[in-house]
Input
Amino acid sequence: MATPNTMKFGAGAFYLGTNDTTPVYTKLCGVTSWGISFSKETADSSVPDCDSPDLPIWNQTDVTAQGWSISIEGFAVPEAQTMIEAATLSTVSIPVRLYIADAGSGGATPDKLFSGKAHIRHEISAELKSRATIKLEVTGDGPCSVTSVAMP
Output
């Protein structure tokens, strides 16, 4: 049996962007955990067979809404606080990116880039005799583009 190639934690990087015409992205440092998830809301319809109405009815499922979110956890880095607070306090969504090395299609585009606009929420916490940590909840505002890229 062949051993599959797998992605490593260090392959991921999260970036917050500015709302400029051409966004400027800043990588968050101190990240210890990241994840991305996609959601779907559906509606089922039970449509009978026109030729054989006595047959069991197959459900047909329509997608009514889609969403995405990113979760980031790590150490609270003072140099990033102003940027994170501005993103959290903003009433408009901001550009974000999650880059994952070696998750793309290979060849000239070996990496994967998830990008879109999102709203940010964050929480900072600490315990006695330990470093402060931060948790970011990134909620997509519109579509998330998923592309295979070659990132430096």
About this structure: The two ends are 33 Å apart (CA to CA). The beta strands are 12-17, 25-27, 31-47, 58-75, 94-100, 111-125, 133-140, 145-149. The mean pLDDT is 92.
